[in-house]
Specification:
By secondary structure, the chain is α/β, with parallel strands linked by helices. Helix content is 36%, strand content 16%. The chain has 14 helices and twelve strands. The strands form two sheets. A ten-stranded mixed beta sheet has the order 3-2-1-4-6-7-8-10-11-12. A two-stranded antiparallel sheet has the order 5-9. α5 crosses α6 (151-163). The longest helix has 16 residues, at 216-231. It is globular and about 50 Å long.
């Protein structure tokens, strides 16, 4: 029996206040409410949320996109799962700010730096955001911007860590600003559960093509820090992300070795067409997973290499399927 537990224990909150149960792309942008328009208790057990839970119970995944394979991973409906959930979410992913200190070619063409009225923001966090975290065990930051570059998210992190001492954190970062000094200032060095690093390269030259405004040496130093944290059980997970496209695919084997050397899991994602970016506007030029791409066969040769059988490698569904077709 296929099942997905996400609607029963987790949410994602975006900059405009919209609430989802997982990545919006995976759930066809089915929002269950907006925290700026509706009290959270009315969202968490509101009609849209309960409708989604009913569908999952009835094996109806019509709201879920085929690119999500979670429904294939969970086989059992636990008895505690009900249409109405008394406790607030245990896991919350926060994408409250698209501010970022770099312009990765994969996701944006320009810098985004949002400014805030500090007094109003502090009140908003105290009165609106923090109460939502009351039953949370894990807060995740970094799905839409760089959490360590965002004044808003830094303030949420610091206040949440102070108010809820047992709370754990998951940071999805580009690896430039998330050093030990910053983790200590936020009070989260020993409260970090997972570091996810978006790198998309394994060499200085490829990195500079992709991460405009990046700082390779700082990233390499912080990789050593995260490796140390993983090796010494300060963090549970260290993940390194590589979105595959025409300008970086030759770095894939080296990326596996870099991750392995630093106690990290190497995750490979297929390129997704998003937004009004250079890649978005010329998607066919960069999308090497397309069989019609002139470098596609060369890409398959690399994907078919035995190094991708390593225990520290995760290939997301589209790449798994391509590898299977290529003979692995």
């Amino acid at each position: 029996m296929a099942f997905c537990s996400h609607p029963f224990y987790r949410i994602e909150i975006y900059e405009n206040g919209d609430v989802y149960n997982c990545c919006p792309h995976f759930i066809k942008f089915y929002s269950v409410g907006n925290i700026f328009e509706t009290p959270f208790n009315e969202i968490w057990n509101g009609e849209r949320q309960k409708e989604l839970r009913r569908k999952i119970f009835n094996q109806d995944f019509s709201l879920c996109d085929d690119i999500c394979n979670r429904k294939k991973l969970e086989e059992e409906i636990k008895p505690e799962y009900k249409e109405t959930v008394e406790k607030y979410p245990e896991e919350i992913s926060i994408s409250s700010d698209n501010t970022c200190n770099v312009r990765c070619k994969i996701c944006r063409d320009k810098y985004y730096i949002n400014k805030y009225d500090t007094k109003k923001l502090s009140e908003e966090i105290d009165n609106l955001w923090l109460p939502i975290f009351k039953d949370a065990k894990l807060l995740r930051f970094g799905c839409s911007g760089e959490p360590f570059a965002s004044y808003k998210e830094l303030l949420i992190i610091k206040k949440a860590a102070q108010k809820y001492p047992d709370l754990k954190f998951h940071f999805h970062t580009n690896g430039i600003l998330g050093d030990k000094k910053r983790l200590d200032l936020l009070g989260v060095f020993n409260k970090t559960d997972t570091i996810t690093l978006s790198l998309h390269s394994a060499t200085f030259w490829t990195y500079n093509k992709i991460v405009r405004g990046g700082k390779w040496n700082k990233v390499m130093n912080n990789i050593k820090l995260y490796s140390y944290m993983k090796k010494n059980d300060i963090i549970k997970n260290f993940r390194m992300i590589f979105v595959v496209y025409s300008e970086n695919y030759k770095d894939m084997p080296k990326f596996v070795k870099l991750a392995q050397k630093n106690n990290a899991q190497a995750e490979f994602w297929a390129l997704r067409k998003t937004g009004n970016t250079e890649i978005g506007r010329h998607f066919e030029k960069y999308n090497i997973t397309d069989k019609n791409h002139p470098k596609h066969k060369d890409f398959l040769k690399i994907l078919n290499m035995s190094i991708f059988d390593n225990d520290n490698v995760v290939l997301y569904p589209e790449l798994q399927e391509l590898r299977k077709q290529a003979g692995k």
